[in-house]
Design brief:
With 344 residues, the protein is of the alpha+beta class. Helices cover 43% and strands 9% of the residues. A six-stranded mixed β-sheet has the order 1-5-6-4-2-3, covered by helices on one side. Helix 3 crosses helix 4 and helix 5 packs across helix 7. The longest helix has 23 residues.
Length: 344
């Protein structure tokens, strides 16, 4: 069974469900938590973590469905590959972000879609009413419209879409178990590639990027700039209705030991996130070209166990850096980054 991975840390929804200032926001959070629980109890069986050999050609196939704010997945097909834009901005944003993520993995790493075998990309929009999340359910994307009071539409940021699709890449490569350190690495890898897709779209160098995940997702009623910051974990938001200050640690000394959220996978991902930011900015240039390649090649290398620890992942990225770039500055940047966050 594969996990259902959402972009939001559950504790944010739990806090909103208890204490949001507006009854609509409370009810939206409660409904979203209930749906997440249903998904967890009815996980989709994934037949294989290993895709066939990459085909000769790259074939992008996108299909966008609309549930009309119902819960009937996948919904009605509203836009297929190559079809003209619709009058619905949510549909068009989902379609474009799926294509951008496909193009990123193709052009940066020669990967044929999520499974490296031209897996068709499917997404459902307008899922339920005021649904506060974006999910990868092991076979497709699901986007909520947000409650309009705390969260905006979940298709607004390329990095959110790419984050969720990258869970699929992890599913077909390292298969990192969604629990404790391996689960935090699973979340971190999705943040890494989500950020890189946004940087790729903007043609930004590492020193130009904002390194934020989900910028624009909060409404003006929230005191926060994004869900997470890879540059400075723990600084993305500070709002009582979200439970106070962003809880992400950026060093092992702050690692959160908890039974909630599969061992704190969304929070503790701040540590490997910050390591990637440090490595990418030290290497410089377009982050997807060297730092991103090191992380990607590590994911597909076969070096990682499904219960991989931070230490094992750090060692594997150092091995990959040495294999790709010998003992140059790239290797030093990777090792220094992991050392700075207390892993090496």
């Amino acid at each position: 069974m594969r996990p259902v991975c959402g972009i939001l840390p559950p504790y944010i929804l739990e806090k909103l469900a208890e204490a949001a200032d507006h009854p609509d926001a409370r009810e939206a959070a409660r409904e979203t938590l209930a749906v997440a629980a249903d998904f967890r109890q009815n996980r989709i069986e994934t037949p294989s973590l290993t895709a066939p050999a990459p085909p000769a050609e790259f074939v992008l196939t996108r299909t966008i469905y609309d549930t009309g704010n119902s819960m009937a997945l996948p919904g009605n097909e509203v836009r297929g590959e190559g079809e003209a834009p619709t009058l619905d901005g949510t549909v068009n944003r989902a379609y474009e972000s799926l294509g951008l993520t496909f193009a990123f993995f193709q052009n940066a790493y020669g990967r044929h879609s999520i499974d490296d075998a031209n897996l068709p990309l499917e997404a459902t929009v307008h899922y339920r009413r005021r649904f506060n999340n974006a999910l990868w359910n092991s076979s497709q994307m699901i986007f909520g419209d947000g409650d309009g009071r705390v969260f905006n539409d979940f298709t607004l940021s390329h990095d959110i879409v790419a984050h969720e699709l990258s869970h699929g890449v992890t599913q077909y490569t390292a298969g990192l178990v969604y629990q404790d350190e391996s689960g935090a690495l699973n979340e971190s890898v999705s943040d890494v590639f989500g950020s890189l897709v946004k940087q790729y779209a903007r043609r930004q160098r590492a020193d130009q990027a904002d390194w934020l995940i989900g910028a624009g997702l909060f409404t003006p009623a929230v005191l926060g700039q994004a869900l997470r910051s890879m540059k400075d974990p723990g600084s993305a938001f500070d709002d009582p209705q979200l439970g106070g200050r962003d809880r992400q640690p950026k060093h092992m000394s702050g690692y959160l030991h908890t039974a909630r959220d599969n061992g704190g996978v969304h929070d503790n991902s701040g540590i490997p996130n910050h390591a990637f930011y440090l490595a990418a900015t030290a290497i410089g240039g377009f982050a997807w070209e060297k730092a991103g390649r090191i992380w990607y090649e590590t994911m597909v290398s076969g070096q990682l166990s499904q219960n991989c620890t931070f230490q094992e992942f750090a060692d594997a990225t150092a091995n990959t850096a040495k294999r790709l770039y010998n003992s140059g500055s790239e290797l030093a940047a990777v090792e220094d980054a992991w050392r700075a966050v207390g892993v090496l």
